Every structure is written in C-alpha cells, then in structure tokens.
Model the fold of this input.
Amino acid sequence: MTTPPSDAVSELAAATAGLTVWQKTKIVFVSVFRTLLGIFFIAAVLVLVPARPHLNMWVPIVAIALMIGVYIWYFRLQLRRIHKAKYPSVQAAEALILVATMFLAIFAMTYDIMSGTDPGSFTEDLDRFSAFYFAVTVLATVGFGDITPVTTAARSVAMLQMAIDIAFIAVVVKILGGAATRALAQRQTLGEPGPGKDN
Done:
C-alpha cells in the first residue's frame, strides 16, 4: 500500500523538523539539481542517436534496445536508492520524474525514427522535440489532434504506448511510493540515520 501524498509530506516534514531553513533548502536544491542533470543526460542521448540512419537502420534499433536495458537497470537502482536514502520521499519523487522522462524518451525516439523512415507515418514530419511532445500527449491522453499517427505501424506503436501507459501510471507510482513507505517505516523502527549521512 502506498503512502498518500499528504502522509508523505507529513513524514517528510517530521524527518526534516530539526533542520534549519538552509538545510531544508539544500535538500530540495540537490534533488532538483540531480533531477535536471538526469533530464539533461536523457535529452543528450536523444540528440546523439541518429533518427535518419539511411543505410544503417541497426543503429537506432540497437539504441532503443540499449535504452530499454538502461531503463530497467535505472529503475532497480532507484529502488535501492530510495531504500537507502535519508529522505525516501524526496528520492521517490526524483526517481518518478526521471523514470517517466526516460520512459517517454524511448517512445519519442521510436516515433522520430518511424517518421524519418516513412515521412507519411504521422500527419507531419517529426523531429526530436515534436516526437517527445507527441509521446507526452499520448501519456496524458490529451490528444490535441495536431499530430496523429497515420500508418498501421505508427498507430500500433501509439496503441502500445497507450496500453503500457496504464500500467506505467498504476504500477510505477505504486512501486516507488511503496519503496518510500517501507523505507520511512524502517527509519521509524530503527531510528533516523545521523544528520551527517547523505542520501
């Protein structure tokens, strides 16, 4: 069972009760910095992988397979980090943002490659940004209608993302939230780690 957001905020407030305003600010700043660094790294990977490989289609295919492998490894790493973190709720929020960004990046890369291979796959030719934008609209089920899949292959990938999105939202949030809840419960049982220990 996951901790409701209000409970997580209460637990975080209790964990940081003895800290000064500067120490609390530092916790938030470090977490935001790590999150932005992770997003920048994901964006850099997206930029470096060729979307229009022309003669060598294996390059983007191998890149997507590698990203899926890295995604699974990174998800497991985040679970361990949440368990060991001094502030598990902060770590869980950071992990959720980065895991979601990486998840969307995999589909954005796929859409971009499909558009590069067959420009008629979507109602407009996609670049990296518009492919990521489309992946976000599919995740959010907004469907503005400005970009839509046209070919059977493009529609199939969009349908696959829609199906996985349901599991992603339900399962990933539950797993990360549950890891934070268990870590917080363990802190209460064993006592808080020393103030000098970083997460």
